[in-house]
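Write out the 3D structure for:
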Amino acid sequence: MFKQKWKFILLTWLSWSWKTTLSKHIYNYYTNKIYDIILIDWDDIRKTICKDLWFSKKDRNSNIERIWEVSKMFIDVWFNVVCSVIAPYEKHRIYFKRMFWKNYFQIYLNSSLKDCNNRDVKWLYKKSNEWKIKNFTWILDNYEIPKNNNLVIDIEKFTIWESMYMITNELNIR
């Protein structure tokens, strides 16, 4: 038996910072222990309820609002949500935290821009530098470094498995 203290986990940082990879590992790990868990990943959301949005500030705000609404629907029916999104502005993360305050767990995946760029198989950073993508986070638009994280993982220092151990250890569910 384990004690569950969270309902909403947010993994945040830049594109190609292992958000999706780690969130899938978290989802798979807890699926064996918690049956009511769902993964909300920006790559999947972008293909469905946010396919009309791009990188403008207005679109980023709409994106976060839609993700929040979907997350809230699942939490209201007792699901745990693992959410992997950039959430570049502090107001976005505060928005999540206020709604899910006692059940909120924020993980900041710290990684250099160079490291993220090196993992980018979709060439998003290159396209942004060539002005083919406007307002791309950290290149042409700001990312406000989170201030109140439950966990910070330096992605360049730890493997996926070491990072997973840190996460599960911190969540106190093993």
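The mean pLDDT is 78.
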